[in-house]
Amino acid sequence: MPQITVDYSAPLADAFDRAAFAREVHARTVEIAAARPPACTTQFRRTEDTVVGPDAEGHAIVHVSVGLLAGRTEETKARLAEAVLEALRAHVRPVEGLVLHASAEIRDLDASYRKDETAS
């Protein structure tokens, strides 16, 4: 915990400094939501197709989902969502001809959530 998943449009691959973004979001999650640094995990998923409204061209999307163990206030979640959007603005360079649609969602992990770490 936290489990951070980032879906991003393929045309952003070279414009998105994913490692720097993850480091910043991890730091902000520790600061804002009292997460432990080694518990922060981020997974990036590149999506090939993006459609916004009726348009399949000229748009790119980045959506960040942060799953936290229950107990954070709505204010804390909102502050973290704003911090995630700030980090996106800092780590995704503009791409000519694309409108970037960025969003963030901070949610509670289900009570059934479990984590296992196995070293090989």
Helix content: 25-40%
Detail the poorly predicted runs.
none
Q: State the order of secondary-structure elements, H for helix, E for strand.
A: EHEEHE
Under CATH, the topology is which? Macrophage Migration Inhibitory Factor
Major sheet details: 4 strands, mixed
User: Any idea what the CATH superfamily is called?
Assistant: Macrophage Migration Inhibitory Factor
Question: Which descriptors apply to this entry?
Answer:
single chain; 120 residues; alpha/beta; Macrophage Migration Inhibitory Factor; 4-stranded mixed β-sheet; 4 strands; 28% helix; globular; 5-carboxymethyl-2-hydroxymuconate Delta-isomerase; 5-COMe_2-OHmuconate_Isoase; Tautomerase/MIF_sf
Outline the structure in words.
- The structure is a single chain.
- The chain has 2 helices and 4 strands; from the N terminus they run E-H-E-E-H-E.
- With 120 residues, the chain is of the alpha/beta class.
- It has one domain: 2-Layer Sandwich (Macrophage Migration Inhibitory Factor).
- Strands 2-1-3-4 form a 4-stranded mixed beta sheet, covered by helices on one side.
- Helix 1 packs antiparallel against helix 2 (74-91).
- The relative contact order is 0.26.
- Pfam families: CHMI.
